[in-house]
Design brief:
The structure is a single chain. The chain has helices at 44-47, 56-68, 79-91, 105-120, 127-136, and strands at 25-27, 30-32, 38-40. The chain has a 3-stranded antiparallel beta sheet, with no helix packed on it. The chain is mainly alpha-helical and 151 residues long. It is 37% helix and 6% strand.
């Protein structure tokens, strides 16, 4: 077997101390190593598969969507995104009916700060932005992009 450490940098770890669990397959709440040792996936792969691994409904939905359109940039309009927006508008409190879709966490955080700055007119490190700055500065923040601290 190829070493899982040879060509991979693992996040939030001293690389010399990393001892990743090799994973070969998963089903329901379990995952297995290549040697067949079974684990309960208590954190659902960082909460990405709360419904469980290998759920046939999810597999079917992914296959159906991938056969039509596997990916669309956040700045494009798609029917599934429109349906999701309508459902979110239906279940969110108050008159919230417009949503901002992104590719991931760092982009979501970065744009949340930009939106807060736009609506408050505050472009310095104040209040909630100060809190976000302390929480996210250096974490999940892409280099070369704007930072909460404005640097």
């Amino acid at each position: 077997m190829i070493s899982p450490r040879k060509h991979t940098l693992f996040e939030w770890s001293a690389q010399s101390k990393v001892d990743p669990i090799p994973v070969a397959r998963a089903k329901g709440i379990y995952f297995w190593t290549p040697e067949g040792k079974r684990f309960i996936d208590f954190n659902s792969q960082l909460m990405s598969v709360n419904i469980g691994h290998g759920d046939e409904r999810v597999i079917r939905a992914i296959a159906e969507q991938a056969s039509v359109l596997a990916y669309a940039n956040p700045f494009m309009a798609t029917e599934p995104r429109a349906r999701l927006g309508a459902k979110l508008a239906e279940i969110t409190p108050g008159d919230i009916d417009t949503f901002f879709f992104t590719n991931g966490g760092a982009e979501a955080n970065e744009n949340a700060i930009k939106i807060a700055r736009f609506f408050t007119g505050r472009h310095k490190d104040y209040g909630a932005l100060s809190f976000v700055s302390r929480c996210y500065c250096g974490r999940d923040q892409p280099y070369g992009r704007s930072s909460p601290m404005g640097r």
